[in-house]
């Protein structure tokens, strides 16, 4: 059993008969009253994010997890297939377990969080950013650059991202996986 002083980003805990991963936390010590920890928890089974507050010293049940590198192979509907980069074992995961399934390109290496006691895959962590090619976008209109103007673009995985007007079809762009936003153009 751990306590609230052991809370950190990425820690997996059991809460309300479900397994959660701590995304954000903040220790709060008000001038009046006891200290507490404000957390943002993501369910590893449903993907739902909830806010929760633990009082200081509250006991929490920690889940022992391991991380393994897997390569994304292909998808069939809502099922995604991955291969372990060490022993070449293949696993299939449902779309709900993935953070940004629309940004996954075949061959991409991701980190899979596995519960140590029963080898059950709990979550998939994407790299911080991915580089994808723009397959379709409308040409930018000249003179429409008074502010940070953007236009929709479709990338090779089928995801839609807002990009600056100077991005054209065939350009490679870097996209953050956390928010699915354009970061920069990659020079070839």
From TrEMBL:
Positions of the Translation elongation factor P/YeiP central domain: 67-122
A GO molecular-function descriptor: translation elongation factor activity
Coiled-coil residue windows: none
Domain Elongation factor P C-terminal, residue spans: 130-185
Membrane spanning stretches: none
Cross-referenced Gene3D superfamilies: 2.30.30.30, Nucleic acid-binding proteins
Listed name of the protein: Elongation factor P
Source organism (scientific name): Urechidicola vernalis
């Amino acid at each position: 059993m751990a306590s609230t002083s052991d809370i950190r980003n990425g820690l997996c805990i059991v809460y309300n008969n479900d397994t959660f991963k701590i995304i954000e936390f903040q220790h709060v010590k008000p001038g009046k009253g006891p200290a507490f920890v404000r957390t943002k928890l993501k369910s590893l089974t449903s993907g739902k994010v909830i806010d929760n507050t633990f009082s200081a010293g509250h006991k929490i049940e920690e889940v022992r997890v391991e991380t393994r590198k897997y390569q994304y192979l292909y998808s069939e509907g809502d099922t995604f297939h991955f291969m372990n980069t060490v022993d070449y074992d293949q696993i299939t995961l449902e779309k709900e377990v993935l953070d940004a399934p629309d940004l996954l390109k075949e061959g991409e290496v991701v980190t899979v969080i596995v519960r140590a006691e029963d080898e059950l895959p709990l979550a998939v962590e994407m790299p911080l950013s991915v580089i994808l090619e723009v397959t379709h976008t409308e040409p930018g209109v000249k003179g429409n650059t008074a502010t940070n103007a953007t236009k929709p673009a479709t990338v090779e995985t089928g995801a839609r991202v807002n990009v600056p007007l100077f991005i054209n079809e065939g350009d490679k762009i870097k996209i953050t996986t956390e928010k699915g936003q354009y970061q920069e153009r990659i020079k070839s």
